[in-house]
Amino acid sequence: MTIIVNDGGLYSTIQDLGRYGYFEQGIPTSGALDFKSHILVNTILRNDPNCATLEMTYIGGKFTMKSSNYISVVGADMGFSINGIDMPIGKVIKCTTGDEISFGKAKEGMRAYLGIAGGFQTPSFLNSRSTHEKIGVGKPLKSGDEIYSECTHKPKENIHLKHIEEDKIIRIIKGEQFDYFNQDEIEKLLIQSFKISTESDRMGFRLEDISIKSEKGYDILSEPTILGSIQVPANGKPIVLMNERQTVGGYPKIGTVIKADIPKLVQLQPGEPFTFLLIELEEAQHHYKTLMHQLKNDELIENVKLAKHIDTDRINRHLEKNR
Amino acid sequence: MKIEEVSEDTMTITFDYAVSEENCKRLITFLESLRPLKFEGITDYSVSYTKLMIYYDPMIIESSDIEEAIRKINADEYQTPLKKKRIIEIPVCYDDEFGLDLNRYYEEGLTIEQIQTLHTEREYYVYMIGFLPGFPYLNGVNDKLKMPRKETPRTRIPKGSVGIAGSQTGFYPTSSPGGWNIIGRTPLNIGIEDNTLNVPYRAGDYIKFKPINSATFDEIEKQVNQGTFNINIEERGV
C-alpha cells in the first residue's frame, strides 16, 4: 500500500516525535516541529502519537493514493483537497485507490501534517523515522517518490478538532546567559514585535528587525543546546534553535521559547509579526504539562455528534459521489 | 555540585567552571555512575567542558526526583574514572593535497615533518562530541600548532578533514562549512554513513592521530569501503 508523490511541495519531510538517546554523539532529536499538530493528527486517526506523519512547509505537495486508507490533516491551512473537492482540516477522511490529494500555498499557518492510519512506514534510523537532511538521514520528498503505509485499523470517523483561537504572543523564559544582556537589550526583546526571516529552517529561525548587544561578548564555552534557545551571535541577530540544531553551541543565549509555545512559533509565516513575553520557569513547566495532559486525554478533539455542523459522513458521501 | 533547572525538560550539573581535563573527567565519571541507574524519563545526556546536561520528559519524571537521586550519589567518589582509559587511533595523511591550510604553518617556519610530529605526539582527551554527529572536541595542541580560526570560513570542508582552531583540534566526520585550519585528512568513515552510526569514541576517551602516507590512505579507504578496516583501540588499566 503506497502513496505516490507527484509534487513534493516546498519542503516536505517524514517526521515522528524525534530521535532520542544519541544527543551526546552529536545527533539532534529532529522530529515534527509542531509536535502538537503531529500528535493531534495521530490521535484523530487512533495512531500511536509517535507514528510518522508528513510535515509540509508553506507549500504542500500533491499525491496519489495507490490503495485505500484513512488520512487526516492538522496544522496550516494549505487548501487541502481530494479530487478537486475542498476538504476540512482535523477530520478523518476515507481515501480509495486513485484519489488525488492536493495541497497549495498556506493561507494560514506554516506547517501542515498529513497523517495516515498506521503511520508512514519509511525506514527507521536509530529508532526514529524523522528525516534529518543535514546529517544525511532521509531527504525531502520529491516527485516520483513512493511512501509505504499500511492500514492497520479503522479510525473513528466522527471526531474533529476543537477550534482554539490563538494569539501571536510567544512566551519565553530566561536563557542560560541572560546576565550577558543589560536591561535595555532585554527590553528590546520584550517590547518590539518581530518577524521570522525567510532564511529559517528546521535548524533555526532567524529573527528580523532586531539587533541585540551582549555586555560580555559573544563567545561562550561551547555547551549543549536546548530546543527554543534564543542565541545571539556577534552580528546581534537572534536565532531560535530548533529541532535540527547543532547539539553544542558557543553563542550566549538570552532566552528560551517555552515548549508549550513551540507549536505556535513554528506556525508563524515569515513576515508575520509576533511579540515575546517573559515568564517564570515554573509557569512554563505548568503550561507544558497542561498541553501534554490535554493531548494525552483527547481534550483538544471532540465528537462530531456534539457538533453537527461538520459531518464527516457527509464529506465522505460527497467524495464518493465524485469519484 | 550545582544542579540547575534550565528549561521545562533540561537540567545541568556543574562541579567547577574551570576548563580542565580533571573537571571534565569528573563530569563524565559522574555520568557513568548515573547512566546505569536507567531512569525512566531521562531521554538524553550531554557532556561539555564544564556542564553535564540532562534531558528528560517531565510527563514521566519530575525534576525534583532526578535531583534527589543525583544528591544521593556521592560526587567525591567519582573523581577517578570508573572505566579503563581508551585510546582510539585515527590515521591521518598530512599531504598538501589534504592539508588545505598547511601554508599558514609553513609561513611560520614549520616543516611538514614538524607539523606531523607535533600533532601526532599527544593523546587528546575527548571533552565532548557535537556540532556534527561524531565531531570530537579535543583540546591542548602543542603551542607551535595553535592557530586562530580562518577569518573567512570555507563554505565546504571535505569529509574527514583534520583541523585546528586555537588550541583545539578535531576532524569533520561529514562535509560541512567551517573555519578551522585544515592540516590533513583521515580516510575513516565516522558519523553517519549508509544509515548506520559509527562513532567509535565517547566523551572521556582519548584520540591519538597516526601519520600515514597517501598510499596507506588509499589502502585504508579501500578497506573502509569494503567494511574490512578495524579501528585500532587501545585500552589501558585505570
Protein described:
The complex is a heterodimer of chains A (323) and B (238). With 323 residues, chain A is α+β, with helices and mostly antiparallel strands. Chain A is 15% helix and 27% strand. Chain A is built from five helices and 22 strands. In chain A, a hairpin with a 7-residue loop joins β14 (195-196) and β15. The longest helix of chain A has 16 residues, at 281-296. The two termini of chain A are 19 Å apart. The model of chain A has no long low-confidence stretch (mean pLDDT 92). By secondary structure, chain B is α+β, with helices and mostly antiparallel strands. Chain B has two domains: 2-78, 2-Layer Sandwich (Gyrase A, domain 2); 85-236, Cyclophilin-like (Cyclophilin, Beta Barrel), CATH 2.40.100.10. Chain B is built from five helices and 16 strands. The longest helix of chain B has 14 residues, at 21-34. Chain B is elongated. Chain B starts with a strand and ends with a strand. The model of chain B has no long low-confidence stretch (mean pLDDT 91). At the A-B interface, β16 and α4 of A face β1, β3 and β13 of B.
